[in-house]
Amino acid sequence: MPIELVLQEVENLNPSVMFPENKTFTEPGEYIHALVKLSRNRLTQTQDPDFGSEDSGCEAVFAHEELYKHVLTKMLVRTRRKGPFVLMHGDMALQGNNLLWDDELNLVAVLDWEFCYTVPTSCFIPPAWINGFSPDPIRAIGQMGIFYDCEMLSLKRSIAERTQQQWPESPLSREWQRRVGESSDPHVSVVLALLYPEVIDSVFWEFFMHKFYSPHYLPPTPTREIADEKLAAFRTREDIKKFVAKRVADEKDYAKRYEEYVRENGEPHGCRCVSCEEQRSKFENLQQLPMLLHPLEVPVECESTGPEPIKVERLDKTKRAPPEWIRRLELIRDKRKSQT
């Protein structure tokens, strides 16, 4: 079962309606439909939708609806009608926090397998972080999709080489070979949005709209203008106005009740012990780690995978990674040089 199902159970959102406890899916399309329903369930039922205002809430709902429309009309057409279903780690597609490495960056362990589950091969995707440990992997894929494609090709070659003796047909690398590439076909981003509904907003506004709006308009129109035009029409719908207004009111009510709880019981998870501070420091260091496969000097401008150029800021030299991470980065580069 997806980790999103567990999270919704904790919030008492009754996700078993979409994913019954003993349900066995036999068709990939049925499973993808269930993921869409699970995502809708969070949008409509969670006490804290994180809208902020009616304007931003309307944008979030619009992003969900447009993504669902694509999944249910285009993605399902390209999905196999029958299996296979494969085992997947439940919490590693978006972040690589469950991987343990030694000082020479050899992988020594993978944690948290208790949330592993089976998915159709169309939902078994390369991790979002293979081109670097970015704090926002969705944005990194959107801005530098071509680099992600290069890493995908490298990963597929590595899988094919490692499985050649046991499985010469290398089914995983062949399955991933069917994907043209994230820079031209955002399959990985769409699946990430299905598995992690909290990133739907980012997937749509950072990446998705650049792929599916502009090609359908002649002469070409800036994608943001197209999105704004569609969003303006979306806002006029009475059902959307009522839904967003209700969800914003729910969010304010939740925030008020949370403040009352904090006043009476104190801030939850506010531990300041040495162990927690050390873990927090390590996490902050990891977030500052430069992308492993690209130079530290990043061009100010890079060509966008969409019709509009996307500005990429230079890395701040005053905020480079700590010395131990720099040393590990150098080890990786030395290894790659020795292999070439």
What this model shows, in words?
The protein is mainly α and 340 residues long. The chain has a domain at 3-127 and 186-264. Helices cover 51% and strands 6% of the residues. The chain has 12 helices and 6 strands. The protein has helices at 3-10, 28-45, 54-75, 137-143, 145-163, 171-177, 187-195, 200-212, 223-235, 238-265, 274-287, 323-339, and strands at 85-88, 99-101, 107-110, 117-120, 301-302, 310-311. The chain has a two-stranded antiparallel sheet with strand order 1-4. A two-stranded antiparallel ribbon has the order 2-3. The model is unreliable at 285-325 (pLDDT under 50).
Which shape, going by the Cα principal axes?
A: globular
Q: Tally of extended strands? A: 6
pLDDT under 50 segments (min length 5)? 285-325
Q: Which percent bin holds the helix content?
A: 40-55%
The total count of helices amounts to: 12
Structural class: mainly alpha
Give, in spatial order, the strands making up the sheet with the most strands: 1-4
Approximately what portion of the residues adopt beta-strand conformation? Answer: 5-15%
Keyword list:
mainly alpha; globular; two-stranded antiparallel sheet; 6% strand; 6 strands
